[in-house]
Amino acid sequence: MTSPASGASAPIAFIDLAAQRARIGRRVDDAVQAVLASCRFINGPEVTEFEQKLAAFAGAKYAVSCSSGTDALALLLMAWGVKAGDAVFCPAFTFCATAEVVPWVGATPVFVDVKEDTFNMDPESLEQAIQVAIEQGLDPRVVIPVDLFGQPADYDAILPIAEKYGLKVLCDTAQGFGGTWNNRRTGSIGDATATSFFPAKPLGAYGDGGAILTDNEELVTILKSLREHGQGVDKYQNVRIGMTARLDTIQAAVLLEKLAIFEDEIAAREKVARRYSDLLKDVAGVPVVDPRATSVWAQYTIKLAPGVRDGLAEKLKAEGVPTAVYYRLPMHLQPAYRHYPSAGAILPVCEALAEEVISLPMHAYLDEATQDRIVDAVKRALAA
């Protein structure tokens, strides 16, 4: 372990994209230069190649790339004809994009509580939320489990509920792509999966990007039309109302190089996370990974007693150790969403976690010396 004096060292990166670039920067530069030379900036061959390799990695038949993880979610709701009067079930402890797309198509998000251990959607709360929707005259259509912080949701419990009520299962693996549930990669579970390539994600581009994965060929045809203005035989025939939601060729080229090292990075993230947990388990609530799952550790998030978190963050900041809080205000309490229905008058776990969680620096290139510095700082702050 390092000494307290090391707190005066240079600030630590929360997610060190520069370290990854040091490893593959030349390859990425060459890939981008090839696109620049070809001048095929939209729908270049790298897009098709990336979609094929992404699908193969996930164990899905098809991948449809798009402009962002948010658009991936929206495209699926559009493709399934979700509309006014329909209910879409979302965990309340997630980023706003999961629920944001639901009102876009006129439907109603219904918020669900999460589990205390994994922070993912609580199946019992989902059942309650479905009953609330039915009582309000809504038609239950879609459930969107979120693979929060890198860990897949409890699909063994969620999929039977979806089958019972005839729900489509849209897996939001923006944070969890590359994780597994019962040895199946995220991207090969449910009716379809949406993911994000925002730069901070475990598999991130150098700008915005996203993808949909599915085994449904007919759905793929609709999605490809929707992402290109609802085109038919060509872009001047419009057979449905669509949008502009393409992944550009430069981002596909970058992602191809990052996908090539993704397995290595997942293993490195697991090593970092295990070491964090070993070193912090006596002073904080460390993450719990379901034994049926593996996580890609998009974030490493600990739980503290209420009232402790903000003081810890300030002390760590003074030592050059950054932190982040996901999420200070659950979705069902957000001003833009609090008029929508929820599984109950309160969602107790979501509301408790919002006061208790804090995330520490996490990436595949976090060396042990830097990690020791972070752990030392956390222990000193909590002991003070």
From TrEMBL:
Gene Ontology BP annotations: polysaccharide biosynthetic process
Keywords from the UniProt entry: Aminotransferase, Pyridoxal phosphate, Transferase
Residue stretches in coiled coil: none
Keyword DNA-binding in record: no
Positions of post-translational N6-(pyridoxal phosphate)lysine modification: 201
MF annotations from Gene Ontology: pyridoxal phosphate binding; transaminase activity
Domain of life: Bacteria
Pfam family, one: DegT_DnrJ_EryC1
Active-site feature positions: 201
Family matches, as PANTHER family: TRANSAMINASE, UDP-2-ACETAMIDO-2-DEOXY-3-OXO-D-GLUCURONATE AMINOTRANSFERASE
Family: Belongs to the DegT/DnrJ/EryC1 family.
Name this protein carries in UniProt: Aminotransferase DegT
Organism (species): Xanthobacter flavus
